[in-house]
Amino acid sequence: MNKFEKVTTGTGEECGVFGAYGLDGEDVAASIYYGLFALQHRGQESCGIAVTDTSGERKMISKKGLGLVNDVFDEESLSSLKGNLGIGHVRYSTAGASRAENAMPLVINYIKGTLAIAHNGNLTNAVELRKELEYTGAIFQTTIDSEVIAYHIARERIKTHSAEQAVKAAMQKIKGAYALVVSSPRKMIGARDPFGLKPLCIGKRGDTYYLASESCAIAAVGGEFVRDVEPGEIVSITKDGITSDTSLAVEKGQEARCIFEYIYFARTDSKIDGVNVYHARIVAGKALAESYPVEADLVVGVPDSGLVAAKGYSEGSGIPYGMAFHKNSYVGRTFIKPKQSQRESSVKIKLNVIEEVVKGKRIILVDDSIVRGTTSANIIKMLKKAGAKEVHVRISSPPFLYPCYFGTDVPSNEQLIAHTHTKDEICKIIGADTLGYMELEKLEEMIPGLGFCDACFTGKYPMEVPGKDVSHAFE
Amino acid sequence: MNKFEKVTTGTGEECGVFGAYGLDGEDVAASIYYGLFALQHRGQESCGIAVTDTSGERKMISKKGLGLVNDVFDEESLSSLKGNLGIGHVRYSTAGASRAENAMPLVINYIKGTLAIAHNGNLTNAVELRKELEYTGAIFQTTIDSEVIAYHIARERIKTHSAEQAVKAAMQKIKGAYALVVSSPRKMIGARDPFGLKPLCIGKRGDTYYLASESCAIAAVGGEFVRDVEPGEIVSITKDGITSDTSLAVEKGQEARCIFEYIYFARTDSKIDGVNVYHARIVAGKALAESYPVEADLVVGVPDSGLVAAKGYSEGSGIPYGMAFHKNSYVGRTFIKPKQSQRESSVKIKLNVIEEVVKGKRIILVDDSIVRGTTSANIIKMLKKAGAKEVHVRISSPPFLYPCYFGTDVPSNEQLIAHTHTKDEICKIIGADTLGYMELEKLEEMIPGLGFCDACFTGKYPMEVPGKDVSHAFE
Amino acid sequence: MNKFEKVTTGTGEECGVFGAYGLDGEDVAASIYYGLFALQHRGQESCGIAVTDTSGERKMISKKGLGLVNDVFDEESLSSLKGNLGIGHVRYSTAGASRAENAMPLVINYIKGTLAIAHNGNLTNAVELRKELEYTGAIFQTTIDSEVIAYHIARERIKTHSAEQAVKAAMQKIKGAYALVVSSPRKMIGARDPFGLKPLCIGKRGDTYYLASESCAIAAVGGEFVRDVEPGEIVSITKDGITSDTSLAVEKGQEARCIFEYIYFARTDSKIDGVNVYHARIVAGKALAESYPVEADLVVGVPDSGLVAAKGYSEGSGIPYGMAFHKNSYVGRTFIKPKQSQRESSVKIKLNVIEEVVKGKRIILVDDSIVRGTTSANIIKMLKKAGAKEVHVRISSPPFLYPCYFGTDVPSNEQLIAHTHTKDEICKIIGADTLGYMELEKLEEMIPGLGFCDACFTGKYPMEVPGKDVSHAFE
Amino acid sequence: MNKFEKVTTGTGEECGVFGAYGLDGEDVAASIYYGLFALQHRGQESCGIAVTDTSGERKMISKKGLGLVNDVFDEESLSSLKGNLGIGHVRYSTAGASRAENAMPLVINYIKGTLAIAHNGNLTNAVELRKELEYTGAIFQTTIDSEVIAYHIARERIKTHSAEQAVKAAMQKIKGAYALVVSSPRKMIGARDPFGLKPLCIGKRGDTYYLASESCAIAAVGGEFVRDVEPGEIVSITKDGITSDTSLAVEKGQEARCIFEYIYFARTDSKIDGVNVYHARIVAGKALAESYPVEADLVVGVPDSGLVAAKGYSEGSGIPYGMAFHKNSYVGRTFIKPKQSQRESSVKIKLNVIEEVVKGKRIILVDDSIVRGTTSANIIKMLKKAGAKEVHVRISSPPFLYPCYFGTDVPSNEQLIAHTHTKDEICKIIGADTLGYMELEKLEEMIPGLGFCDACFTGKYPMEVPGKDVSHAFE
Fold it and tell me: In the complex, which subunits touch B with 3 or more CB pairs below 8 angstroms?
């Protein structure tokens, strides 16, 4: 299931970034458009593109707006965005008022000319940094962390010799999770936080370099995957090629890649830090099969995010994989939701059970997570109504128990069923015959050898977090 | 793959119809909206809803527009469409200029008050009927067949005692393929052409009756499937229940259901004339496995329309089913196409290969049809680039050779690769290792015992068609 | 004051029509756009243009929509409307739901190909004609009289030798007020009803001919005024020039030109049937000065429609003319009206008094009519608050007492202050010091020698009207 | 004539500001909307409103957009702007790309919470101040001077005890022309630059205070004019009433009010610094009559800006005032301009001559300025074609000769006809019989006793200006 419905609170910094630099002068706006299009799953609230012509006046032109990439850009606007260096951004849909001013990239004029910045992630010390900056006369026009980062880069740039050094100095001040893409008049800079919480990678096609949140975006523009930007690494792409600075990285093994990228966020055709997302989900499915075997006739996944883990469970258990659902391809942001009284049919509008497949069968239903439990309950009800004899639910992640301070949009605790109920209670509430969650200790099998963050399951944060005390409060 | 890209010529009458009648006075616009939403795959060009309040003034209110159901309707417009009897329509995207005036339902005032009509299909004698009508002073404001049908109903209504009789008399004049939904002040009438080329079914929830092109739309509104409208049947739903007239039906076994509904058009969760579309595609896949066995490691389908047939091939052959592609969920109508020079990446924007799945594997690739061959060629190229050792293409329909006069949008012959090349040539052109098409004689296994139309493969039309001579010309 | 606010009921057929035929093949869509733009005051609800290329396929292309000419058309849509023969229409804003389907021109296919029709006016026997047509199987898709007219032309065309003859035969059936512009594949036909209630004139620039509701539209496109179409005349413009048929005209002197065209509707720079609208209003103002002299310091008009009559009063009385008001140039259709509680300021947003001009002065305030009296009361209040010592109101038309059946949108009787109150009562209600209405017998001075209709003041209709009895009821 | 067409270069800071503070808690968004609506003539490019609830959370909510007030706001957006303290802005239409990010008010978070700022005017030291700020790490997201002002207020606020003091300290740094409206959490502050180049005034209705660029906006919301903000004055409105600080004002008589506010910008129903704009224009007209008398039959003004001066000329000369033109009320921003080849008719679409008025007459034509001369030439041509025997042009301002650095949008010198031609040449070019410009020495009669700026005519700037050298260059 599309998770965007789950959002109700949170800072909402799951986003996608994409940068392109045509060293031979080729216009990049169209490529950025396609790149963002491939990253649309990472954010549907707003999007934007800023480009500059490195050989000309180096004036930055940008366009941003609320809505999907397809809504905001058309042929006319793309062709007016002339320039061979540019960055783009898709922003997550958060609850509440439309915030057009928060659309990225942030384009600023500063001491060294123009600079555009796009980021994915959440700073944990943003509030303190804002206060500090305000005490020296800073003004803020948005509520996004990019503005804090931009101020730091601008201030450091006065004291340093290059944009890269300014980015590095800024990174020594900011804390939290981030993947950054910055375009300075003739440079495209990418950076990941020292723990590598958010992904970023490099691609290339001909003389054009790309930076992207996920490798799928590089494939979409016909580029070759070059490599991941490493946790803590700053890369700078200029006409002289790529330079790299990895001195801010945490010690090997201390990285804290967000495990949820593999479980849910990223596309199955992306590869992050050497691990295919598809592979990681297959492994998760197999692990579930091992931990919670059950006699059944068919393994099915909740489209789209549960499908690959279901395949893994099938492979692990030897029980056939089936397609139990038709998902409506036209469900999008602007979908008018049925009124509360018709709540059940809200799921039906998105998903319908293929009766023939499930009738008389014992079903293993795989999904990536349970948030409030309502959606799961509705799906199970639909399966049983279609004749499923048993429904065994397997969840490819451990229960959510702790808040995420790094940009993953998890509902507040009262709304998390796992926070207020035991596994047995949940099983009963959703109407499943049995219920199994991915075991914590098996998470590392998904990305063997790679340090990752599982704080939302364990409460063990890779760094100090502002609300530590608050989170203890509800343990 | 989404087929709408294949359209370049043709009459474009693949559409979806949905009607709802709340006998207890319940407003139906929201249900029609969700019903049309479930039928959106049948038409993306325009849509519309017309409702009337059977207990009040019986004034018809309607709203139509170019675009998807989500684009045309919002909460405000839905709540202004007050009425307990209504019909809706989604229209197929045809090439060429936007034709706002062709959006349905057609709402008319005639001798007996107001009448709304929506239909799916194509009349073969529309041109003659228009001429005939014009000779008696008729004026036409659209180019849709509904207007011809409406005229006939209006004229017959003068001579007959009921709307049903007028519909029947009109059906004796019109020829071709159609599924009709008509709302007369206090009746909802549904009808299928005598051969049953286009599907239509009846659903119910509480005191509300539904008519829908496919059963999936009834499920979407939380209704129960009651039964199919039979080929040649006219059903009338009033507060006294359902009445039926089947006297126009062709002889049992002579029906000519469009086989392409099962192969491609209809949703896999729909059941048409007693046969699950999912089931029919599984059977097709199995038949392909039987006809064209090959040693391979994995069977994969082209999303979304090839997936179920691929599953069938896997079941038939015992070769594992795999997911080779990630399909971008945000691809829609307004997508800006890459310029010709970037042609290859157009497919990449929609689909990306999951390298891990196909690397080093011998792949069986199942799709529902080959039109120009370009898309297939690109997909095979992508698979090979991702490391597939062999790609064996299996198509779940026989080659297109003849034009369809009943509303299926098939490109002109020059564009059909099967029309100008042999199977071996096509195999080579698309870069496949082997190629197999569904065998004509096995089509009936998909819907055993049901009469169907396979004229696009055989040229044997169930009735006289206007362009018969033309089609002979290119045989 | 802009009168469109006064509308609450009525049939709303005040409209503007414009046709252009480039005999040398020149595209006419841009000219029609500017022509409609000049006629925008005649209708703000919807507009449309239909063009055809007389030398090519003669396919009709049209675009219609709700809103002002500027909202509906842009450069792109204008340049897609290729053709050297075309007609356009602006439609009046009526109360109630948006009626996109009622936008004109009406474009139809009929026995002789394609035909577009646009009209201004109101048929008095439309209801009977619709019924009659329905009894012979006609279907109606709109509620506009054009559809009735189109049916008659289509039916007559079967029996006649030319489009002109068909138009003439149709005119013998329809009754009421109308100015028609019709484009038949290679002809542009214009016609006025036998009484000449609605205006229509002919213009020319180079080889392009124009038909327009008012001569101002011909000036706007740089054309020369040729002549008026006469009451009852049918003109046909082809590459062979203009032909005329005046056999349907009423007897000289029996014409019934709408006097309100001169009082309020038409632009002051238009000339209708030989009389300048500006001149007619000056005469009206002078007549008022003669009938209701008063000692005063300044004559001011309510912008914009009262300004010229005020000038006339000034000329007639010798009392200086002054500008008492600033009118906000940005007031338009989409203006958000203040809530009832702020009613008074609604006028203030449109008009503001220039204090310096009126302070300490005895003012003669000229307006074209009083409908409900609220606006007049507010304006007088504003003048007095700004220091006017006296306000003497002079109205350049007699009191409205009878309904108009010919397309002038007059509120229902209960809302007409003149219908429920005496002149003295009205004077008191609006807070004027004295009040004078144009005298009935002086109306003819405005358009000496020309027959006109004053039924809204006298109840003496030039022809039988459907609601005669109803109107008697309230006499 | 509407002057916005004249714009081709320049900084474009002619704008309108409006603030409202409901001390009793009344919502102010609707009032701001109407206030901006009344100021729409001061800027049509973009507009915005920012409001805050002084008794609640004091969160600032804002909405800004490209377009007219009517385009950007609707009932829904106005009702979502809840708050009893708010400011709004309309921005001038400048040539070039749309600059959504430059729409005002600028809303910032700074050391003391949230602050909104709107201004009209142009800083002459903006470039230096930006550089200075950048050297201390400032980042800029727009190109508007408000951002520079906001930074200074923010930085000064750290060192000062109140927002008023911070505004004052900022004003000691910035140079140029400005009228400021600032909303700080519980204060509404207004300020004019020491020379008073731009106007600002105070109004009141019940417990709600207003600040507005022109008094017409106060009238539009039903308020009473309280007084002008004085040149150099800072007023602060809180629940304790109005406080004032005038210590920054230049010496009495040294003020430099923009004379063009009286000649052209401001509405005729506004009063600025004690002088009615209407009155000033009457005086200008009289002065023209005195300087350039001519025998003639009629004085006419070019709508709308020449009308009052024409009235003044008529009063001064005793020659009757006439209405020679009908101006199309629907001309607006989105008007599609005729192609170059139809240049002449561009004026005709906006204005049409009322033939009857001018035929055979010797006309005195009054306008406020001549920029390129094209429009004047077209109008004179139209008058002559309509039969005017003579056309004597009188311009109510001296010739433009010097650039304005304070925000008045004057074309570059090459485009100014007065810059490249003598009066006699211009007279000939535009086809006038005689031509007279307002005499420099008579300007002061328009606003007797008030210091004003006439630098665009004389080159004598009230303060140092950045381009002094440049301007000398073309003297």
Answer: A, C
